[in-house]
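Please, structure for the following, as tokens.
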Amino acid sequence: MRRYAKFKDSGVGWIGDIPEGWGFLKIGFIGKLKSGNGFSENLQGRDGVGDYPFFKVSDTNNDGNEVYLIKGNNYVSNEDFIENNWYLFPSNTIVFPKIGMALLMNKRRILNQPSFIDNNMMGFIPNSKIQSKFSYYLFRLIDFKNYCSDGTVPSIGESQINSIKVLLPSNEEQEQIVAYLDEKTSHIDKLLDIPKEKAAEIFKWSRILAQRQQGFGHFVTGLCYGSGVGTEKDLSKAFENIELAGDAGYKEAYPVLASLYHSGGEFPRNLVRAKDWASRAAANGDMGSKKIFVSCEIEMENPQGRLPSFSPQAIQYLNDGSQANLPWAQLTLGRAYLDGCGIPKDPKKALALFEKAKANGNGEAAAFIPSAKFEIKD
């Protein structure tokens, strides 16, 4: 990688200076986002028969689809395409879940051929400013938990993603970065391609460590149960061992447990436990866990979504998120200032936060701006 002779101010304090030839742009300026198509059940189930694959979120779990979506469980004909007026996504589109628990897993895939995706997914079509594989790596760095809408079913929209700002090197440097990351990830993939006998050995030693009450051993045992490495896949045992790892003080388990208890799904939803584990993870700087902590406090006090009188800890996490330019934190902190929820009322601060959240793509923030302006006039 080259050394840079000149730098410039990024315009954002926590980023600082960036190389002179780099850009700091909203995602909306480097490509187009497009939601997927409705897919009728009567058209589903044609495995390998048709002109185009029609990918669903579940296809990201297929063997061989770890980076590029190659094998689909559903195919459709050109006649189906014309009749339903679907949008055909071009090759090299970056696709990902946009709703539900799958969104929080931050899966990213690349289309290796023109394809359809269903309406639980979204596609990013890069323009000339960014290379497809570089945008794949870039999107993998963005944690959608920090941008998605809160609620029983998490979701994210085009406006929220389009407003996220990213650092963008020149195309030549993008090529170099992609080549470097491809080489390193290929090496990691080879290390993770574990023969059955070695997988069994890993599981055996993880159990030995776990029996000695070592948090790392419990955590690895949990991962083995969760992915079926060296043993039969068993999600309940995976959950049990990851919690034992957390109880033993293994910090890597904290954010995993916070997320599992908060989201529920295949695991028991428990907001008290989620808040506890989120607090421990947040103490180590995990921003996603700070959001979970605040969400738990809201749901536990006011299930209808009205803000509670926030604890000082929650206010601190909202300030942390706001300073990191995260729209969910700016919106919630603005609402706290507007109504005096655990913090003195200050409609001027509320208005500034709502405007920042709106500029960063939060669709709810605009609805609160008139109330803040009205409070300021009074």
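The radius of gyration is 23 Å. The first strand starts at residue 7 and ends at 9.
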